[in-house]
Request: fold
Amino acid sequence: MVNQKVVLKFSAALVEQPIIYRLIKNYDLMVNIIKAEINPRREGSLIMELSGQPDNFQSGISFLEGLGVVVEPLSQTVVRDEERCSHCGACTVVCPVGALYMNRPSMEVGFDNEKCLVCGLCVSYCPLKAMDVKWGD
Ligand code: SF4
Ligand code: SF4
Reply:
């Protein structure tokens, strides 16, 4: 089973076509739409999670690209607002991989972006809303 978040960008001519319906019906894919920006007569974009058997997944992507849809993997990252962070340390308790950690003896909270799993726990836990998930597209 493949499970991947992707960004679709498509022209105004494709906005009214039943692309999602065909992905589900013809390629047996599960589609979870995360964000949609669709305006009649303008370019559209969709961020969605696609899951299915590898062959179906690849065929579904080829179908989209054949229509002229630009398909890119979604990149997500977590960022810290250094101005907001008070180095209280609360996030270091919830981070499952030690990407947020207390530096001693300075007692400043460090953030190792390379270790981050983008689980989002620190985002909901931070009392000052200093952590945020950025969606790349
Ligand atoms: S919980 Fe928020 S304010 Fe506290 S150290 Fe972590 S990012 Fe900074
Ligand atoms: S998103 Fe998850 S893994 Fe990344 S820093 Fe926050 S708690 Fe740690």
